[in-house]
Design brief:
Length: 631
Amino acid sequence: MARPKEKANRVLKARIQEALRRLEQGDAQRAFAELNSLRADAPDNPILLHALARTTHALGRFDLAAGYAGQAIRHDPRPEFHITLGLSLLALGHAEPARAALHVAVLSAPDLPEARLAHAEILEALGRADDAETELREAIRLRPLEAGLRLVLARFLERQGRAGDALRVLSDARRLAATDDVVIRQQQALLLTRIGAQDDAERISAEIRSIRPEDPAAAANHGAILFSLGRFDDAKTALTRALSLASPTAETLSNLALVEMALGDLESADQAFAEAARLRPDDPRIALNRGTLLSELGQRHAAETLFNRVIEAVPGTPDATRARFNRATIELADGRFGQGWQDFESRRAILAPLPRPDLPDWDGNATTERVLLCGEQGLGDLIQFLRYVPFALDRAPVCLVLPETLIRLVTDSQNLPFWKDHFRSGRLTITGDSAINGATRKASLLSLPFLLAVAAPPAFAPYLRSRASETVERLHPGLRIGLCHAGGATYRFDRRRSIAFPLLAPLLAVPDIDWVSLRPGETPDGFEPLPDGDMATTATVMAGLDLIITVDTAMAHLAGAIGRPVWLLNRFGGDWRWAKASRVTVADGSQRSLWYPCVRPFDQQTPALPELAWQEPVNALAEALRSLSGG
């Protein structure tokens, strides 16, 4: 018959194990209550004290955890007790005492992988990455068949910026793991997403979904990756599935809203964002994205309120920077150009750095030293902001860096009044190589309105022309019209900007028109193709056209800059540069752009789905075209 003390010890041990099972199940609060109730009968039991240390550590009470672990060690200096003490001290910010505790654990149990892992964590915190890696690899040597240890090493390597090494270790871990393991797959997909290998990330994410078809997180993660790949319909299916499998989460709803925006369904996006905001009202990312949507819906005041809230709530963060940039687009759309250009500068913290990091930024003040002017963002932006170069030339000699496709066109334009004196004086040079010597400062073309305090759009004069345009001859009578119905599909929200070709049927039904395609590499049936070449080639084609019809692409800017008539098919809540504050009304009651007086916008009147929203402006443009052609 067991002695009473032995029986009591067995009961105590069983109750400790039961409490630790609750801890493993995530109920640390109840585990702590049960363990604490045992203290009265066993105040100095080291197993109980260590269990209390583990539980309070899980509760975030690292001071109590260190105290309990220290008491346990006084009664029984086991290696695992030193591990808990060291990790608790590290959580309290006491890295060196934590290292000392873990050093004891490693010395007393050199073959214990858990001691090596904990020691590595503390060495990494102390900045001793090489020593930390040594300990992690030693843990793997001790248990070479344990996939989880390789997962820990891979995460460490990723934190050290060694993504390639991390992926190789994860591949090894996959070979050791169970065939239905998803944890390692999730880490692979996450890392591949971070390094831009989205196709590989999507493949692995699809594997996870096939292993766990009823897991809402698997569907949600897959949907997010599909969205990043531009596979919006598939992303919507995955995210909708995730929402059907469990209670909606703010993150999944927010991702679904972004997908709906990309699909052009602004009303559904608004509903999803509203629900996400209800679930997580203080989330700055949700507020930021919802503000972008409200701007597209034409609710600019409400959008600006959200952007201001983000700027105030998380100052100095990337989200606040993006909110400030988005606020700039609203200010510019409203004609508040002075404040708009100031906020527009926030984009520099978001975009890739300008070329030549060795050169300091130009502040816009007069100087005799040459300034390197660089483009950024899209080709349309670059063409638009070329008009500020003469203002810069009034203050400094300039070396203008252009993409290859624009160099010949700008060079051919040098005899226009806009450029003539500057080219002749030698104050303006053009290059495609930012490494050119001689410049001592740099600036972005898009920063010139701010740097030079040129608020409103400057007076317009054509500033681009192809030399070959001067000899263009018309080969056929009647109207020749160029059409660009779509931009690059890589633009995330292209479905609202571009027009599906069948929707242009009313336009193409107007008789006696020779149509010319202005989309490189794409020629619809019955259209004259756009010749291969640079933008000077395209400008030559435009010079022989009576009219250019285009959506919001670089073609609108090019045609506007050379002064050709442009009819712009403009989406609801469109880009700031085509907004009403940047327009004037002319004698016939129609509107023209302040940026390019030859540009006449035809606006969507509703934020409906694209196939519906385009009907009205396409019909209005077709009617105007019939009047122009006499058809």
